[in-house]
Amino acid sequence: xxxxxxxxxxxxxxxxxxxxxxxxxxxxxxxxxxxxxxxxxxxxxxxxxxxxxxxxxxxxxxxxxxxxxxxxxxxxxxxxxxxxxxxxxxxxxxxxxxxxxxxxxxxxxxxxxxxxxxxxxxxxxxxxxxxxxxxxxxxxxxxxxxxxxxxxxxxxxxxxxxxxxxxxxxxxxxxxxxxxxxxxxxxxxxxxxxxxxxxxxxxxxxxxxxxxxxxxxxxxxxxxxxxxxxxxxxxxxxxxxxxxxxxxxxxxxxxxxxxxxxxxxxxxxxxxxxxxxxxxxxxxxxxxxxxxxxxxxxxxxxxxxxxxxxxxxxxxxxxxxxxxxxxxxxxxxxxxxxxxxxxxxxxxxxxxxxxxxxxxxxxxxxxxxxxxxxxxxxxxxxxxxxxxxxxxxxxxxxxxx
Length: 401
Ligand SMILES: [Mg+2]
Description:
This protein is an alpha/beta fold. It contains 13 helices and 15 strands. It is globular.
């Protein structure tokens, strides 16, 4: 079996809105897609987000006609991963044996290693190829990916959801609804607005679900090593389950000091992309829980190595999924099933359905009682609804008029 074709597809939740910007197809009135920056408190920690849900999917086709799908977590600029895949990876992959996943991963990673591309866009693009290889090989062998990885430790994967709501009243109401749907963990933020007010709002949510669900807090790097400790102590007193990304990711010494100062777990890891980066953070005592993103951190192959590195430090891993599509969710679930030190998976719950999730699939990924079921079929175990996918693909779009 050889790799015969490497393609990528820019997928958007609302193609008409995207078309309105003139990027493709007809122009029409409406909200233009683009990028917005959120300022997390300090004025220094700006983070850019796309104004529409979008991602980059990869399709590998073998010479015997099998397909494997992968995803690069690529907000807000999927065009970068697309160019890396088309101009750098595709020539290195065509004609190669897809079963040699480890060899191919190493060759692709090495292609830019000495130029300093050991993270970021490069690893997001590599993640897409790696996941597509696992999907393709699973289909070729008629086995789900989690079994090829030596699993399962579990096939029902615990999950938590983010709490939507503009006001604390809305978040409290949504938290209660999620408890009724079986969620026993949910995440809220402290990042935007006045910090002390944000902590009080977390307290209101904790109180609303006390004894029924654990509340996790994401601070999006809003504190520094000095301000994080008193805020962390207050959250610890409330019984918060973890404090995520309290500091900017470069401050490893600050993370280590915070882990020392608090009993509440400090979680981070949506920034790091490789086993080497996680090893450095963990060796310095900078995390109690890690949150790698499988569609950013080099895919399933590197994700498994990252989980093993974490296990050496008795640290569990959780899947960061954020704005990922159904491919992202499925890839995270297969790795979660096949690694002993997995804790919980992020999932966009029913109150804020993923516009690139189940809607793209013939069969949804099954949720029940705070758990997602690992798709059981060959490869990633999911099959696209071709019409639903084409309706959201800019690359398959034929302009009208
Ligand atoms: Mg986060």
